[in-house]
Amino acid sequence: MARGLIPAPLQQLARALDDLPGIGPLAADRLARKLALTPALQTRLLESLSQLHEQIGLCPVCRHFSNNNECSLCQQHWCAGPQAPNDRVVVLQQPDWYETLLANGQIDDNDQYFVLHGLLSPVDGIGPQQLGLDGLKSRFEITQTRPRRLLACLEDSVEGKTTGYYLQRLAAGYAIEFELCSPAT
Ligand SMILES: [Zn+2]
Q: Of 39, 87, 93, 135, which one has the fewest beta carbons inside 10 Å?
């Protein structure tokens, strides 16, 4: 259909959907048309997005998703403090790897955590700041919250290697032992 025939709100919605990973412009157009034809789905999405906006954020300590400022990772693992029985911090590329890595024994209940939600990618404008790595560094600055070891769980890609190298150098600056693991498949 000629673009001029499509109302502006529908075009805006399609552009917003196209910004999501893995969608693409054709699927974004199709999803926008489906939404325009389905008021009940619009209502469900509006309610979900409103709750997401009001309740979900990132934990200031470990950067896992928090719900109304409550972080399930920190509650289970004492990410913030010296109370942790194990002195290892696990840096996760994605939070959804947690369950599998735990089930495979690559990480354990005694670890502390830090979630990147991505990888360093200078060409895409994603640097240490975008991944919250200054927060991890500030944890290392304080002796009481500095782990003895760092395990980085990153995918095997150019960006994964770049991120691993950055973390290795960061750990070395604080005499923290560095280990690398790939996500379990
Ligand atoms: Zn947390």
A: 39
How does pLDDT run across 113-169, given as a tens digit for each residue? Answer: 999 999 999 998 999 999 999 999 998 998 877 889 999 999 999 999 999 999 999
Q: Is 89 exposed, middle or buried (0-12, 13-18, 19+ CB in 10 A)?
A: buried
- CATH superfamily for 3-55 is RecR Domain 1 (1.10.8.420)
pTM for this model (two decimals):
0.83
Span 57-181 CATH architecture: 3-Layer(aba) Sandwich (3.40)
CA of 142 to the centre of ligand 1 (A): 18
Cα(99) to centroid(ligand 1), Å:
16
**Separation CA 176–CA 147 (nearest Å):** 7
